[in-house]
Known about the structure:
The structure holds 2 protein chains of 2 kinds.
Chain A: H1 16-19, H2 27-31, H3 39-59, H4 63-82, H5 87-110, H6 116-130, H7 137-157, H8 163-185, H9 192-216, E1 272-274, E2 285-290, E3 297-302, E4 304-305, E5 309-311, E6 318-322, E7 327-329, E8 337-338, E9 342-348, E10 355-356, E11 362-366, E12 371-375, E13 380-381, E14 391-396, E15 399-400, H10 403-407, H11 414-419, H12 432-441, H13 447-462, H14 478-486, H15 491-504, E16 509-515, E17 519-520, E18 527-530, E19 534-542, E20 546-550, H16 559-564, H17 570-582, H18 585-603, H19 605-617, H20 621-639, H21 650-658, H22 667-682, H23 688-716
Antiparallel strand pairs in A: 1-5, 2-9, 2-18, 3-16, 4-5, 6-12, 7-11, 8-15, 9-14, 10-13, 11-14, 12-13, 16-19, 17-18, 19-20
Chain B: E1 3-5, E2 27-29, H1 37-40, E3 46-47, H2 51-55, H3 57-75, H4 78-102, E4 105-111, E5 114-116, E6 121-129, E7 135-142, H5 151-155, E8 164-171, E9 177-183, E10 189-192, E11 195-200, E12 208-213, E13 217-221, E14 229-230, E15 254-260, H6 272-278, E16 282-287, E17 294-300, H7 306-325, E18 329-334, E19 337-339, H8 343-352, H9 361-364, E20 371-376, E21 389-393, E22 404-405, H10 411-421
Parallel strand pairs in B: 5-13, 17-18, 17-20
Antiparallel strand pairs in B: 1-2, 3-12, 4-6, 6-9, 7-8, 7-11, 10-13, 11-12, 14-22, 15-16, 18-19, 20-21
Helix pairs in contact in B: 3-4, 7-8
Amino acid sequence: MKVDRSPRLFRLQAGRAEEEGPRGETFFHGLLRRDDPLGPLRLATLAIVIIASLGLFSIDPRPAYLVAIGIVAVGSWFSHWFKRRSWLVILLLAIGMIYLLIQHLSNVIAHSQDTRLPLAQMLLWLSVLNSFDMPRRHNLFMAQIVGTILVIVTATLSRDLSFGIVLIAYFVTLLVWSHLDSLAAFRSPPRARSLAREVLLAGGGVVTVAAIVFLGLPRGGAPVLHRLPMSGELRLPFHQDTQVQNPGYPAGRDASGPRQANPDAYYGFTDALDLDYRGKLSHQVALRIRANRPEYWRGMAFDHFDGRVWTMTRPDQVRRLESGTLDYQLPQDTVAVFGAPRVETIYVEQDQSNLVLLPSGARELFFPSSLLYRDAYGSLRSPVTLDRGLYYSVESQPMYWDRRILDSAGAPPAPLARRLRAYLELPADLPARDAALARQIVRGAQGPYERVRAIRDYLRRTYPYDLSIPHFPPKADQVDYFLFDQRRGYCEHFASALAVLARTVGVPTRLVTGYAPGNYDMFTGYWDIRTADAHAWVEAYFTGIGWVPFDPTPGFAAPAEMARSGPTVPGLMFLSYAQDRLGPMFWAVLAALAALAIGLAWAFRGEAVQLRALRRRSTSPEAFAVSRAYVRLLALLERSGVPHRPGWSAREHARAAGEVAAIAPAVPELEEFAALYQAARFGPRPTDVQVSRLESLLARIRRRLAATARRRKQDRSPPPRAPSR
Amino acid sequence: MALEVWGWGKSHPQATGDPKLARPVALEVWGWGKSHPQATGRNALRLQGALAQMFMRVGVLLLIAVATLFAAVNVQIGWLYALGALFVGLLAGSLALGAWRLRRVAATARAEPETACPEPLSVGIELHNHGVMGRSFLAVMAPPLGEVWPVRSLVRQRPPEHWAMAFVEHLAPGEPHVVRLAIPAPRRGAFTDPEVFLLCSPLGLFSWWKRVRIPGEIIVTPRVVPLAGIAGFAPAGGGGDDHPMARTVPEGEMLRSTRSYRPGDPLRMVHWRTSARAGHLVVKETEGTAQAGGATVLLDLDGHTAEGLEHAIHVAASLVSYLAEEGFRVRLISQAGVVEGSVQAQLEALARAGASRERLAPLVADLEPGGLIVVSARDAGWRSMANCWIQVAEPGGRPMEGSVFCPAGCDVAAALGEGLRS
């Protein structure tokens, strides 16, 4: 009989230990004390906040963020040391938060066009304040959440792959944090080895699920909420130049000698496009564009071609567009079927010309300048060049053209024909064989659209795209030389050939320069447009419809065709992305991964397959455990030199094992195992006790065999050499 | 899927005390097509009621994941896709990992059939991993006997402080692992198949648990306070106002041997010299202790309050223990019946006793000669401090004058003393 002597005298003062702060110890030593259950969790929380802050610093490098990281560390130490809530601290923090709120509101008002950075800054300073008030687990959870939101906001600001480092560091720390939080809930101290194992195991599972979700989520859907960010308003100079300005070609077109292209700027964004320019353009990212579909980005257009150079007949004919709200409504002068509205944001990563790049079907522009110029060819020019860091948004509707309507387009009425005369002019020295070729190509084609399409398809089919061609002879007509002599060329040659040949068969055309869609980066979600993606294509005029784009360069889809394409499958997009990134290594990596998967499956096929079959056949978990123990014993014996014979019983195997010297020490356990196995396997339903005994016997046999093997190995090893004198 | 709700104020079927005492509100959501463990007798795996985690950790993370993916689809930022996917992966990983870790893990629990309140019940839980791979981070926990898992505990972020808990870091396949739990037994009673929970909460998000029943009936005998003496019942030699007098072996008794002190042994039997040598208390055992007379403890279970009833049972248990220790032939009479013989049987009867409105008179009619102690759960009003009414009487029925010797602060002493003063 048990008697309670003093049940009420000793009562554990729960939580008292947590409230007493340690004195006189270093920060990290204090945080990792074994008797402080929240120490490691506190450290993980601090790590999350620091990683989030560094992520922000990597995007917007300001020294204040580094100071904030230092204060967060001090605040965490303070919370660890103080470990209780004080009204004075709470009052000071409340005052700090009110000040922070006021600052944030004023920042939001100042940067109303894009509030992401003010929000990130507010979250960072909120973390700083929060770090002084983290005495308990719940407070650490809240601090982790603030850090997580800061990472999310930072992710929206990031436009390149360097954020991946922050993301990986954050994810690993979050896994560690979650595991430590779980252990803290069960009041169990963490151990480094089990922590690493858990992070690896859970991390593997989480990454697998995340990869499936990441690759399975559709891209390119229509936005539900429209957000149209743009950078801070540009300061306009007093004297404004309405012409096209390109910092890569400050003097305009170089009129003397062979033309050599500036690799960092496109020669097509000048007042005159010379087809004799040669040289490869840089692969530096010039623009990053947030768009849900691939787009052609139109810069400017030329209408006059002299056989070598494209120019504008009305370069000075510009119209001022003014908007105090920085919001420009753009006229639609083309008749088409319009798709669902979409929003694109263009980030300038390298200094550009003053041309405002627009997608087809642009309706509304949000540009950080109160003044823009619109030229006679529908292009927009900014009063100043578009420098690195500038970004703007545009709302557009993709345009589709019905083929029957295009086919039915007839000859323009007289007033319009007069206006379109410039778009039908041909070089004075154009050889007659060009017009003859055009007529030959369009033979049998009905209507202007069919004719343009026939020429485009002919060019695509007949001539390869080649950036290594030499300069053409100075006196030669560039289009003629391209079509009949060089028979390969740049996109400008293809576009010029289409424009000229179409004009010879009576279709008004103009040459357009801009950027091709570039490459989609699955991780950043941006279209990376490099300087080398600068491109030229053609717009043809159809009466009653307007200007319709055509791209004759092989390997490029026309903007209209691109607009029709549906959302891409993310998994395939990822493969294409990986192939783009890895280049020739892609197939090698794919083959290595496949070999690894096959190897792993082969290595684990044996026992896993056998156990799975056993489990299916077993009538209960206990019966499965009995069979599994026997299978493992047989495998053990086989490794020790006793082959498995299917016809033998467990006792026969045990007897045969007894004759092998290496197994002799384990014979008593083997015999007991055999007897117990037969009783459990062939008797009534096996019990837990039998399973437990079998498993402990198996463990003992395994230990004995291992010990015997160790002894035999030692006996075989050469005796130690006698020390030489 | 079955939903089982124990309403407010209803008693748990395993609780044997007054229904008013019970605090059982348990919401159990049986998960996803699995059968009720009581129906099949197997440990069905099920999703924890998921209220707490859904509202806090899981809820917050789910909200963040949905918001992030919504923003990703809306603004087409790839990093947001990646972050949202990672959050979804974290939730799914926690859910799947917890289910996998408890899958193919079987547990059997065994315990001593009896303990004395408030001594914890020692339970051995044998865990078997029938899977192919090892399992990590399993918590084995049990509420105090008589307490069910209330809905409030789900809302908490950690298991209640007063629960017994052990943590298994790694459970290797094929090797049984035994965990020992000391389950608190704060109240007396008979508990059928009390429960132990096997819980897994990877990454601190979702929690999965299995219910393991300790087979059989566990008796928790009432709390016993050692008494130094009761006037009229104490063997000659004890005395003093507050200090029990140790004495040597009674005359006419032969010292048989010595043994270690056990709770409840009278201090007068301590062999101080041997204790000093041994470093722990040693008591004397005598041959043929003079047989004391009979003693009857009459327990009236007709209490007005649950506290009064519990107090009366506690007092009766202390009295029975004391009298048996002193060699009296003790009879315990209550509305539950007459129990004679071993003190263990009487304590078990007290463990099972519940409030009763039956009259005691028919049982009192055939009282045997000998000392009588009446313990009543009735509220005497002016004896509110004692909570129960105790009368010590001579065989003839006349109240006795005398003193009770107990350790200072003993509530039984206070109760008896008050009874005597009446």
